[in-house]
Amino acid sequence: MAVRYESFWSNEGMRLQAAFDLLLSSENPLDGVDALIWQSLETGARGNKHPWSIGCLMTIQKTGEKEYCPSGRTVVLRRCDVVARTIDFHTDVRSAKVKEIEWSEGAVCWLFYEPSTKIQLRLHGVASVMNDEDADAAWEAVSLQSRSAYLSVDPPGQQRSSQQPPSTADRLVSQLESERGRENFRLVRTRVQSADWLYLRQGGHVRASLAYSEERSTEVSWLVP
Ligand SMILES: Cc1cc2nc3c(=O)[nH]c(=O)nc-3n(C[C@H](O)[C@H](O)[C@H](O)COP(=O)(O)O)c2cc1C
Prior knowledge:
225 residues, 9-stranded antiparallel beta sheet, binds flavin mononucleotide
């Protein structure tokens, strides 16, 4: 019986893998790896089926006077600026991650991985929690359904002792009423400082390191995978 690979691999995943395969078969792949990574992030920020449309954001949680703990969670990649080397996500200002970003002066790590591709992208950078005109514009584009994430009367993460999970009925509102979510909404922008790209390719694993300076120069090199 013929195997239908489409059922295992998403089209978007296959496309991402094929793009890197093509690059690696070219004469000077090192020259193209940075551009392809950022082009792929840009595509990820546009479409929810792209392997990099959703990532894991890691922050540093302070658990005691001198005690720290890594903290990770899934977030949606909302925007990517290839020239400025920034990536954005949306969040609730009352969430734990905002406090963690603020106390750690923005130290964050992003991880993108989708199993069908065997391609991992890890980004380190500095995140800023924004509530300016860019946040206003982003809020305007948030659908009514997505606005519900910012409408809880009680702060996200608050503990409850009841047997049943807390009701989310306070989030079922009209477009006009959804405007009250704006005060909780924030745009978080990460200026990426370095990237570590790894592809567990069948013909041999490949890994690259990329470092971005404030002056917008980029240093790219292969690493032993
Ligand atoms: C598929 C998926 C997408 C998510 N996207 C976001 C997001 O874009 N922004 C966000 O703040 N939380 C998002 N979440 C929820 C977070 O993963 C997390 O549970 C929540 O923000 C609380 O995190 P914190 O307590 O570490 O701040 C998403 C969760 C899932 C499962």
